[in-house]
Amino acid sequence: MTSRAASHGADEEREGFLANGVPDWTALPPPPTPSSHQRRESRLGCGVVVSIVGACIAGARAARAMLACAPDHLVRRWVLPLVYAEAAVAFACLAGLLWGDPGTIKRSTATCAPIPAAVLARLRAGEAAAEKRGQNITGDDGRVYCVRCLVWRPPRGAHHCS
After folding, report:
1. Can the peptide bond before residue 32 be classed as cis, meaning omega within 30 degrees of 0?
2. 13 contacts: CB under 8 Å, gap ≥ 6
3. What angle do CA 98, 103, 35 make, to 5 degrees?
4. Are strands 22-23 and 137-138 parallel, antiparallel or unpaired?
5. Computed over its alpha carbons, how large is the radius of gyration of the chain?
6. DSSP per-residue letters across the chain
7. Distances (CA, A) of 11 to 19, 23, 143
8. 0.85 exceeded by the pTM?
9. pLDDT by position in tens, the chain (length 162)
10. Which end of the chain is less enclosed by CB atoms within 10 A, N or C?
């Protein structure tokens, strides 16, 4: 069998993004990169948390200063340690949100299969998987096919891309 005949047979077997009827997720277009909008939201959220914590600490220090004339008042003794502890918890939660695993759905045969017919037809034509954002496809089992990332999301609303 010549190499040309072998490659022709492989082309027939491969049929674009399918290899033996199974999606070849390595042949799909690359996933979208995070936008600057996502980073801007992150910075804004950090600024809000830092501002709120700063305002709480300033208010607690002011309350403690106003109670300076009170002899060993309960609020005067415990207000700052409690506010500092709350600030530490807020920063720990913020760090978890910033550096924790967001639950990214990686491409694999299990997460890409089956490619919906409408998406497959657009990909074979060399077009984008959807004309505009928000045209995700809901499957019979409740999963949603993301037309940007080309993966099936679980029914409980995983937000893996923007």
Report:
1. no
2. 19, 20
3. 60
4. unpaired
5. 27
6. --HHHHHHHHHHHHTTTEETTEE-GGGSPPPPPPPHHHHHHHHHHHHHHHHHHHHHHHHHHHHHHHTTTSTT-HHHHHHHHHHHHHHHHHHHHHHHHHHS--------HHHHPSPPHHHHHHHHTT--SSSSTT--EE-TTS-EEETTTTEEEPTTT-----
7. 9, 14, 31
8. no
9. 444 444 444 443 334 556 555 567 777 777 777 677 777 888 899 999 999 999 999 998 998 888 777 777 777 788 889 999 999 999 999 999 888 877 778 888 888 888 888 888 887 777 776 666 667 888 888 888 888 888 888 877 666 564
10. N
Q: Quick one: tokens of 95?
A: 């760090």
